[in-house]
Design goal:
The chain is an alpha/beta fold and about 425 residues long. The protein contains 15 helices and 15 strands.
Length: about 425
C-alpha cells in the first residue's frame, strides 16, 4: 500500500487548474508534473502549486514523456473532451491509474477501446463524474438501497443550463484567433462550442446519467438495453446572438447543428426507463431535472419535493430536506460531523478525487470503473445515431459482455457507491 501518490495533471485550463489545486491540498498527494500542450498553462499551474502547495512540480508539454517516467503513479486528465479517452488509454497502457474529466464519447468504438485496454492491462481508470458524490444524489442512493421508493419504475435526469453566452464566446474566440477561423474549425477555443456546432445529440449526459446509473445498478445486475433520442430545432443560440451581439458581427447568422433540447429515453433490462435531457441553448435556471419514482413514492429535484405513500399526506408534496438529513450518506456524515471544508461544487470535487486517490493508494479498482465510464459516455454517440435516423431505437452495447448478471462483490472503500 502506498503512503503518497505521485500524480501528473494533464490539461491545465480552468478545470485542470481547479483539480490541481484540490489535489495539492491533500497531504497524501504529490503533484509530480504539470502537463499541457501549451507550456505557459503548465507553468501557470506549477507556479500556483509552488505558491499555495509549497513545492514546484516539473513542467512538461510532452504527455508521452510524462507517461514514460517511472515515478508517476497516476494521471489526472482535464484536456479537451475528444482527448479524454485516448489519453486515459495511453495512461493505462503505460501502467498508470487514469482519471479523466467528463464529456460524451466521440464514438461507441472509443468506448470499446477503453474496455479492451482495461481488460488487457488490468489498470483501473475512473471518469471524474463528481455528481455521483453530490449530497442529494448519495442520499437518494441510500434511500433506494433501503427501499424507501419501493421498486424503481421511472427516473429522469439531464443537464439543463443556460450556456448561450459561454458558447457564443467560444465562436467569437475562434473567429478572432489568429490560427483559427469558422471555415477551418468553428469554436476551436471552446469544447462545448465546437461540439454544438458540429454534432447533433446529447453532448453532455454524464452529470445526470452517472448518479442514476448507480441508483439503477447499471453493470451490477442491470444494464441499459436500448435508447431513442429526439431533438428540437436549433434556434436558441441564434436568437441570443441576434439580440446580444452587434448587428455587423459575423456570428449573428451562426446556426448550431445541435438541437436546442435533446430528449433521450433509455430502457433498462429490468424494465425501468431513464429519460435524459440536454438543454443548454434556452433561458432557464440550472437544473439536472432529477426524478426518482417507484412503487412507494417519488422525488423531484425541481422544487426539491418528495412524496412517500403512507408517510406523506395524500396527494401532497413534502420538503425533501428532512429526508436528506435522515438518509444522509455515510460519506457525507463523516465529513459533516468532522467539520471539514470539502471545497468546490458543494464538496463533490473533493470526494471524487479522494475516491480516485484512495484507490491508487490501496491498489484497488476505482468506484466508477471502466465499464461505468463506457456505458455513460456511450449515450452521446448512440443519441447521435438515433437522431440521425429519425429517432429510431438503437441497441445499447453490453460493455460487460454479459457479466452484469453476476457482478463482483461491492468494494469496501469508504467511497464505494455499490
Amino acid at each position: 500500500m502506498k503512503h503518497k501518490v505521485n500524480v501528473a495533471v494533464a490539461g491545465l485550463g480552468g478545470r485542470g487548474r481547479y483539480l490541481l489545486k484540490t489535489l495539492y491540498g491533500m497531504p497524501d498527494v504529490h503533484i509530480a508534473v504539470a502537463c499541457d500542450l501549451r507550456e505557459d498553462l503548465a507553468a501557470r499551474g506549477a507556479d500556483e502549486c509552488a505558491a499555495d502547495g509549497g513545492y514546484m512540480p516539473d513542467i512538461s508539454g510532452d504527455y508521452e514523456q510524462v507517461l514514460s517516467r517511472g515515478d508517476i503513479d497516476a494521471v489526472v486528465i482535464a484536456s479537451s473532451w475528444e482527448a479524454h479517452v485516448p489519453m486515459a488509454i495511453r495512461a493505462m497502457e503505460a501502467g498508470k491509474y487514469a482519471a479523466f474529466e467528463v464529456g460524451g464519447a466521440c464514438s461507441v468504438q472509443q468506448c470499446w477501446q477503453l474496455i479492451e485496454t482495461y481488460e488487457r492491462t488490468h489498470i483501473p481508470c475512473m471518469m471524474l463524474e463528481n455528481c455521483c458524490y453530490g449530497e442529494t444524489e448519495t442520499a437518494l442512493l441510500n434511500m433506494v438501497r433501503q427501499n424507501v421508493f419501493g421498486e424503481l419504475i421511472n427516473l429522469e435526469c439531464g443537464y439543463r443550463h443556460d450556456l448561450r453566452a459561454h458558447i457564443a464566446k467560444g465562436i467569437e474566440l475562434a473567429v478572432s484567433g489568429p490560427e483559427h477561423g469558422l471555415s477551418v474549425c468553428p469554436g476551436t477555443n471552446n469544447m462545448r462550442t465546437r461540439h454544438n456546432l458540429l454534432r447533433m445529440g446529447d453532448l453532455y449526459p454524464t452529470h445526470g446519467v452517472g448518479p442514476m446509473a448507480k441508483i439503477l445498478d447499471i453493470n451490477r445486475g442491470n444494464r441499459f438495453v436500448s435508447l431513442t433520442s429526439t431533438a428540437t430545432k436549433s434556434a436558441g443560440h441564434k436568437a441570443w446572438m441576434k439580440e446580444n451581439l452587434p448587428p455587423d458581427s459575423p456570428l449573428v447568422d451562426t446556426v448550431m447543428v445541435n438541437g436546442d433540447v435533446s430528449t433521450t429515453v433509455i430502457k433498462c433490462t429490468r424494465g425501468e426507463v431513464l429519460t435524459v435531457v440536454h438543454d443548454t441553448a434556452l433561458p432557464r435556471p440550472y437544473s439536472r431535472g432529477g426524478v426518482v419514482q417507484g412503487t412507494k413514492g417519488i422525488w423531484t429535484e425541481d422544487g426539491n419535493h418528495i412524496h412517500i405513500e403512507g408517510i406523506s399526506k395524500e396527494e401532497e408534496w413534502e420538503d425533501f430536506k428532512p429526508y436528506m438529513e435522515k438518509y444522509r450518506h455515510p460519506i457525507w456524515k463523516r465529513y459533516n460531523e468532522g467539520g471539514i471544508d470539502v471545497g468546490g461544487h458543494g464538496g463533490m470535487d473533493y470526494f471524487i478525487l479522494r475516491a480516485f486517490v484512495e484507490s491508487v493508494i490501496s491498489g484497488a479498482d476505482t468506484p466508477i470503473d471502466a465499464y461505468d465510464a463506457a456505458a455513460w459516455l456511450a449515450v452521446t454517440p448512440l443519441s447521435e445515431e438515433s437522431q440521425a435516423t429519425g429517432s429510431a431505437p438503437v441497441a445499447f452495447p453490453d460493455f460487460t459482455n454479459g457479466y452484469f448478471v453476476c457482478p463482483a462483490p461491492a468494494g469496501t472503500s469508504a467511497y464505494c457507491l455499490d
